Amino acid sequence: MNTLAFKVAWRLVFYPVLVYGVFSFIFFWLYAHPKRYSGSYVPEDFGLKRENIKLRTSDGVELDGWFIPNAKSKKAVVVCHGYPMDKSDVLGLTVFLAREFNLVYFDFRATGKSGGFFCTGGARETRDIDAAVKFLQEKGFSSIGAFGFSMGAASVLLADNPGIKARVLDAPYADLDGVLRYIFRPFGIWGRPLVALMKAWNFLFTGISISAVSPERAAAALKTPLLLVHGDADRQVPLANSERIKAANPAAELWVVKGANHGENWYKAGNKYEVRLTDFFRKNL
User: Fold this and answer.
1) For the chain, which residues make up each domain, given as ranges?
2) What pLDDT, on a 0 to 100 scale, did the predictor assign at position 15?
3) Spans of the chain below 50 pLDDT
């Protein structure tokens, strides 16, 4: 067993595994503990008044948020940003909703100015959404909708909260495992063990199985109105994701925006985006 051939073979196995282990941990850490982003836009930039609020989740994470009141409306919408940004990143995209609805914006856990250490791709972000819904209910609102972009959209779909009466999802992903595999597709067959090890690290540190984070499965059980908006030129989260969600929930509306990449639906559709989303919430809240 102490032959040269054995020593060479042992190293040919050990060192690649070691390298994969190290790189997979780095990728996991960058994904689960992203660098904090803090945008510069605030509601006052759009002529709106805000109340700075703090939300407390069921697992004790403090979230930084804004409440934008509309004294003429008894309806409200929770607005959820994408990964790894913050609430200001979707402010310009959704500010038109303030014309008819009360709005709550917040930073998901481990992003922006909120507490929390690990981002979980939607698994525990549902608790953040629940905290925002609870805040609105304590203010007396019962007609509550939710809007989400990208990871925020997936989280909105995963949130099994009866207080949410209608959902709009802009560029959601169908399952978190699929997103990771798509991101690492340039690695070819070498990407598969990398993703597998990332999933193992994630389970070890967070207790969450990435394979279990499936907005597609959540959509199948959803009974409330759902509007999906997706660009057919989305290279980050392809249109096939919303098509899978639509297949799981045939009652959902799917609006395909021509020529729109990730985050470009509002820019490409223009006023139609504002009208369609406003009409959807107006009708279903």
Assistant:
1) 33-175+213-284
2) 59
3) none
Residue of 167, 171, 124, 176 whose CA lies nearest to 150: 171
**DSSP letter at 107?**
P
Q: Residue 147: which of 112, 114, 104 has the closest Cα?
A: 104
Q: What is the pLDDT of residue 4?
A: 63
Rg (CA), the chain: 21
- The side-by-side arrangement of strands in the sheet containing 62-68 is 51-56, 62-68, 102-106, 75-80, 143-149, 164-170, 226-231, 253-257
User: What pLDDT is recorded for position 13?
Assistant: 55
Which two three-digit tokens encode residue 214? 């499936």
DSSP 224-249: S-EEEEEETT-SSS-THHHHHHHHH-
**At the topology level of CATH, where does 33-175+213-284 sit?**
Rossmann fold (3.40.50)
Residue 175: the pLDDT is: 96
209, 210, 212, 214: CA torsion to nearest 10: 160
Q: Which residue has the tokens 């390298």?
A: 19
**Amino acid identity at 56:** R
- pLDDT tens digits, residue range 51-106? 999 999 999 999 999 999 999 999 999 999 999 999 999 999 999 999 999 999 99
First to last CA, the chain: 72
3-state DSSP assignment of residue 270? coil
pLDDT of residue 157: 98
